[in-house]
Amino acid sequence: MTGLFMTSDAVNAVAGRASAASGTLATEWLHKTPRGALAEFGIQIATSCQQRSQAADLLNRMYGWRGYGRDHQIPEGEGCTTFLAASTEGLVGTLTLTVDGAAGLAADRTFGDVLDAFRAAPGSSICELTKFAFDASTPARPRLAHLFHAVLIFGSAKHQCTDLFIEVNPRHRAFYEAMLGFRPVGDARTNESVNAPSHLLWLSVDAIRANISSHREGDRSNSRSLYPYFLREGEEAALAMALDEIEGTRAIDRYPSGQA
Questions:
Q1: How far apart are CA 199 and CA 189, in angstroms?
Q2: pTM of the predicted model as reported, rounded to 2 decimal places
Q3: 134 exposed, middle or buried (CB, 10 Å; 0-12, 13-18, 19+)?
Q4: Which of 70, 79, 193, 236 could tie 60 with a disulfide, CB 3.0–4.6 Å?
Q5: Residues 17 and 241 sit within 8 Å (Cβ to Cβ)
């Protein structure tokens, strides 16, 4: 992966322009921590075959040792956006956001009737998180929070997502409930593609924003939640600016700082 990190001066310049409507930003970065913070950690959108291949390698390495297979591919297409989290050690995380469209979502294969009920709600725009892998040997909690926050802002700004879903093995359900506030929708079913039980978890985007606001500047010491580690307002606005320049989303208008 080339051009992995911006200099600390460039990072400071981004933060300083957080409330401005103009300026030039390194186009491949969504969010970048200053030098020394989280061992220089940044978030990108995968735009090349090489980046998607690196994400697949991480995914298969993390899934393989858990017995979930080693032949997973990163999805491509207009409604799929893969996020990369990297540090000086290399790629440490990946997560793909898929927006509902003609092809539907991966979870339709097991929970199509449930998702159809959400689709039927006026004004709904459903999205799904898939292909998630993260190296827990890194300082995981703040990095995870920044990654999920980037995905939220992107999904809200570009796709106006209202409801977020993830299909998980029952052993992982507690993580998503405690860390992000996901709620199960119905009972577990058998995912035929992996011949294993799975839960469909749901989270309202409005609930995410409310959680960010209620936890902002809160005490992190005794919290299992990721929300106290989400981006502060200035960082959030800088990330929205990056989205404007990378994707033309008008993220500042659709996801204004302070209204998370």
A1: 7
A2: 0.78
A3: middle
A4: 70
A5: yes
| Per-residue pLDDT reduced to its tens digit, 165-199 | 999 999 999 999 999 999 999 899 998 877 889 99
Cβ pair 146, 238 in contact under 8 A: no
Q: CB–CB of 228/215 below 8 Å?
A: yes
C-alpha R_g of the chain: 18
82-114 pLDDT, tens digit each:
999 888 778 889 999 999 999 999 999 999 999
Q: 119 in helix, strand or coil?
A: helix
Domain range enclosing 42: 8-249
CA distance 49 to 43: 17
Greater confidence, 128 or 5?
A: 128
Query: Residue 133 is which amino acid?
Result: A
Whether residue 1 is contained in a domain is answered as no
Amino acid at residue number 37: A
How many domains would you assign to the chain? 1
List C-alpha distances in Å: 162 to 29, 119, 220, 229, 254. 25, 10, 27, 22, 13
Q: In sequence order, what E strands does 100-233 have?
A: 126-134, 163-168, 183-184, 189-191, 196-204
The domain that holds 188 is classified in CATH as: 3.40.630.30
* Number of residues that this document lists for the chain: 260
DSSP, collapsed to helix, strand or coil, labels residue 246 as helix
Residue 44, classed as helix, strand or coil, is strand
